[in-house]
Write a structure and sequence with these properties.
CATH class of the largest domain in chain A: Mainly Beta
Shape of chain A: elongated
Order of helices and strands of chain A: HHEEEEEHEEHHHEHHEEH
Helix content of chain A: 40-55%
Number of helices of chain A: 9
Largest sheet of chain A: 4 strands, antiparallel
Radius of gyration of chain A: 20 Å
CATH architecture of the largest domain in chain A: Sandwich
Number of strands of chain A: 10
Strand content of chain A: 15-25%
CATH topology of the largest domain in chain A: Jelly Rolls
Structural class of chain A: alpha+beta
Strand order of the largest sheet of chain A: 2-6-4-5
Oligomer: homodimer
Number of domains of chain A: 2
DNA sequence: CGGCTTATTGACATACGTCAACTATTGTGG
DNA sequence: CCACAATAGTTGACGTATGTCAATAAGCCG
């Protein structure tokens, strides 16, 4: 059964052009696990042992930082500080994605933790194996570079949004990204994640997400539960100052 | 003279292991330009024509978005809107770096503009050439993957900071990153960029950067002009809740 | 139906952006 | 080398966006 799942991995573009020998090693050394929601795949700070490939489900990359009052008045007296862990979702990956290939390639500790946000089937491929593919499998290095290039663009778009746009605009942009690229007319969408997760991903509080949703009502965006209706995509686009760069 | 500069390109890790034929093509098809400060290498939205390699100097990747009142009350009446271009620095690259390799690989329009923030010598390598290297030069694809992996980590760190930490904390973290990795003791730093640029990069207004610098004074960070003195690195680290993940 | 979680709303505090005035620094021509 | 202008940086006052806490409402599931 595991073998069957690993065969699925071989079907992904990233692994499609591996040599027979490499395919064999992958099937021999990799394994598949089914994870419930909220399973931790790895934690921030630990060494990159595996490349995680999502066969089905959905995984959030979450960054955490000890949060304190961070007030200047309170001196560097660790004891007296109120330290609460704060976290933010940096990226959400779905089927066919690879969770953090950068740490694996560079053989460095993960900068973030990964947690399933839906029941998921995950393939675990040993990091040294992946690194050896990079040296020995010509097509693999190229596929990895392409994958990383796409991921880089996703992140830089997010960073741009974070630095230049309001929470409400980011929300609008997110909704547009779910309405599969149409430029105008109406759209009906189902939100794939719960509010808390979405808020964390968009970089705002859940409370503000609610308020932002309420605000969007006035430009023809109606949300109830996970069901969403956009009356006029163009109107939302203009509100969000969305460019077409993907 | 150009050839001499292009030879420098060949010395960078990214191009170090190219075949002789590839080196020849690179020297034949690439060229070098010296740019003053504030030169635009390319603009957001245009197709990726070249891979830009920084031989010396410094280049900012800057994202821009039309900014408006973005008020819900004002309807989608483009005429009545006050549209001002807002921009933010997404990343700063220095000698040895490659500016936006992602767009070149994917053959997509740039998502951001690039502007020199210091006089710079830039090598222009035609995008199709780079893409052909990816297919035909085994070592190049790997080098590109490694480079992209590093860039991905830089971006994700920034995104994490943006979502989890205050402006002052980001500033502190930046100063620490300039004090070449020491964990404690004092440090003396020279800021490599002006305040406006730094503020934009850290995702805050220049005014707030000033105030943040003032705040840091109370934890032993003294800045005058571009010269910076940190009394106790550990103190700053604890204030900024800096983790050690790079 | 009742108890649980999840989402919304309101009141309030805080961080941050903006505008304007002021000061410091840099550069330039006499 | 000084005087002056131009640019860059700082400071204060103020408004807005967003986070936080608490209370309420709405879904969800046994």
């Amino acid at each position: 059964m595991e073998q069957a799942h690993l065969t699925a991995v071989l079907g992904f573009p990233l692994f499609a052009a591996l040599s027979d020998e490499a395919r064999g090693r992958l099937q021999a050394e990799g394994f598949v696990q089914s994870q419930p929601v909220d399973a931790i795949l790895f934690e921030q700070g630990q060494g990159a042992q595996f490349l995680h490939v999502i066969l089905s489900g959905s995984v959030a990359l979450v960054g955490s930082a000890a949060a304190t009052e961070a007030s200047v008045d309170v001196p560097a007296d660790a004891q007296s500080r109120v330290v609460v862990d704060r976290e933010a979702i940096i990226e959400i990956f779905g089927a066919g994605d690879v969770v953090t290939i950068a740490a694996v390639l560079l053989n460095l500790p993960y900068m973030m933790s990964a947690r399933t946000i839906a029941p998921s089937r995950i393939a675990y491929l040993p990091a040294p194996l992946i690194r050896s593919f990079l040296d020995n499998e010509a097509s693999f290095a190229k596929a990895v570079a392409m994958k990383l290039a796409k991921h880089w663009r996703l992140l830089s778009r997010q960073l741009k949004d974070q630095k230049l746009r309001s929470g409400t605009q980011r929300l609008g942009g997110y909704l547009l990204s779910l309405s599969d690229g149409r430029m105008n007319g109406a759209a009906t969408i189902d939100l794939p994640v719960d509010r808390r997760t979405l808020a964390s991903w968009l970089g705002m509080s859940a409370e503000n997400l609610s308020r932002s949703l309420a605000q969007l009502k006035s430009i023809g965006v109606h949300v109830s539960g996970r069901h969403t209706q956009i009356d006029d995509i163009a109107r939302v686009r203009s509100f969000c100052l969305e460019d077409d760069l993907r």
